[in-house]
Amino acid sequence: MKFPEEVYSSKRFREQGVAVIELIANCMEDSLSGQPNKVIEMTDPATAMREVQQWFDRCTLDDSKDVAQLFSDIYHRAIRLHHPGYLGHQISPPLPDAALASLFSDFLNNGMGVFEMGIAGTAIERFVVKSLAKKMGFPESADGFLTSGGTLGNLTSLLAARRAKATDDIWESGIQRKTALLVSSQAHYCVDRSARVMGWGAEGVVKVPVKRDFTMDVSQLESSLQVARAKGLEVIAVVGSACSTATGTFDDLEGIGAFCQKHDLWFHVDGAHGAASVYSTQYSSRVKGLQMADSVVMDFHKLLMTPALATAVIFKEAKWAAGNFAQKAEYLWDDANHVDQWHDLAKRTFECTKSMIALKVFTILAVHGEQVFDDNVTTLYRSASRFGELLQRAEDFALATLPQSNIVCFRFAPAGEPDLDLLNRKVREELLSTGEFYIVQTTLGGCVWLRTTIANPFTKISDFENLMNEIRRIGRRRLPS
Ligand SMILES: *Cc1c(COP(=O)(O)O)cnc(C)c1O
Question: Which atom from ligand 1 is nearest to the alpha carbon of 151?
């Protein structure tokens, strides 16, 4: 193709675009109906590499340079989130309208670092952030931004915590003394990673024990704090998990909030997964106390049908949203600055150039209204709770804890089986190779548990029953008779 005219040809784009949209629509129909596609066509990494080479070669040789054909090949080896048997890690099957927003924002490619580089995108981000902060119960003055993933969102929040609470100005002078935060032993690994990135080392994360439902035992906060202080650590923050990744259960945010107030600690809520509960009329009480937080992280791509990555970081006090990365500390105390300059986003975020994350969320809100978020969260939580009931009633299954979100952990536990860890590991392996369901596994209390996230509102009770029967079928074959 002749450069630049033919590679930028609108005629070609029109033809390819129509074919690609047709392909996606077909993929969606197939996946949603659960027939005939599997959730996953498992293979090994070496085969996957060979296939990529084949796709590349075919496309190179093909005169038509058919993008839709290429995507069709890729779809074959992609995990299909729209399939009702997708019950794996926490990520949403995106709404088609949101996928269109991604396409449009990828075309615009407005970098958003400074206002002129994305006027609409910047204002839309403000709109999304403000409406979320309000939904979370924060005062009008709360502020924030969108960033690339919960992992980066948590690091960004903890940088603010450090700037707000550490005795030394570490941002300016580097680390002088050992800093730490308190978090439950069930927290997402990125909290630990953040502490290490900030130079706090392994000691920087003090693990608070959990209760039987895998939520933080708030009654242990006081002693954890004293032990940490006795070791010479300056504790600056407590991180609440809402919810925890493995079991989907919610820390007592009111209890942690009160503790933080008493000890003048920063209260961060890692709500990457479950802060989206605020949208559910039925389940918003799961995050009671959320508005006590100094900062909250929430992923739109986990429960809110938005293509990844789309993460909000909300600060109760606007100055932390504005001045977290300010090179000069005085900036933080200059009120005029952060009120006036909300529109130069690169000053606020870790990223410089950033994609138009907010457009995806805004499109969903504008086209479908906030109700669609309520519908999705409520449907998924309710569905998980029904799955929990099924498992509880079944004598050959054990439930790790009653589901509080759309995450359900359980294991196949038929009477007389000596090694349940091995059995469940094998069951998952075989499920993966048959490809009709996709589930993951986790370790709780030193034991292997199967873990599901109900991500798809099309997953029905009959799918859960089928999954359980499939597990029985695989498991029984492995049992010594
Ligand atoms: C998923 C998750 C994260 C990580 O978020 P990413 O968007 O995957 O980077 C952090 N914390 C919790 C509690 C999560 O569930």
Answer: 9
273 lines ligand 1 (CB under 6 A): yes
> How many angstroms separate the most distant Cα atoms in the chain?
75
Helix pair 357-368, 371-393: axis angle to 10 deg: 90
Q: For residue 103, count other CB atoms closer than 10 A to its CB.
A: 14
Q: Is the CB of 360 inside a 6 Å radius of any atom of ligand 1?
A: no
Residue 150: CB within 6 Å of ligand 1?
yes
The answer to the question of residue 330 being in a domain is: yes
- Structural domains of the chain, count: 3
Closest by CA to 299, choosing from 92, 75, 76, 36, is 92
Q: Would residue 83 count as lying in a domain?
A: no
User: Do the beta carbons of residue 397 and residue 412 sit within 8 Å?
Assistant: yes
Amino acid, res. 480: P
Give the helix, strand, coil percentages of the chain, each rounded to 5.
50, 15, 35
Any domain includes 88? no
Domain at 447, CATH number: 3.90.1150.10
473 and 348 within one domain: no
Q: What is the DSSP string of 241-298?
A: ESS-TTT-----HHHHHHHHHHHT-EEEEE-TTGGGGGG-TTTGGGGTTGGG-SEEEE
Cβ within 8 Å of residue 15, ≥6 positions away:
none
The total of other beta-carbon atoms located within 10 Å of residue 364's CB is: 24
pLDDT attached to residue 67? 95
Q: How far is the CA of 50 from the centre of ligand 1 (A)?
A: 32
- Token pair 């006081």 is found at 222
Q: For a pocket test of ligand 1, which of 156, 158, 190 has the largest count of ligand atoms closer than 8 A to its C-beta?
A: 190
Which atom of ligand 1 lies closest to the CA of 301? 7
In a domain, 403, yes or no: yes
Burial (0-12, 13-18, 19+ Cβ within 10 Å), 373: buried
Range of the domain at 131: 103-368
Q: Which contiguous run of DSSP H or E holds residue 113?
A: none
Q: Which atom of ligand 1 is nearest to the CA of 311?
A: 7
Atom of ligand 1 nearest to the CA of 244: 13
Task: Give the pLDDT confidence score for residue 331 in this predicted structure.
Answer: 60
Average pLDDT, consecutive stretches of 10 residues, N- to C-terminus, the chain (481 residues): 95 97 96 89 97 95 91 95 97 98 97 92 97 98 96 97 94 92 97 96 97 98 98 98 98 98 98 98 98 98 98 96 78 59 86 94 98 98 98 98 98 94 97 96 97 97 98 86 54
What's the whole-model pTM score?
A: 0.96
* Of 125, 130, 155, residue with least CA distance to 297: 155
Query: Is the same domain home to 74 and 118?
Result: no
Q: Could you give the 3-state DSSP secondary structure of residue 450?
A: strand
Q: Provide the phi-psi class of 248: left if phi over 0, else alpha when psi is between -120 and 50, else beta.
A: left
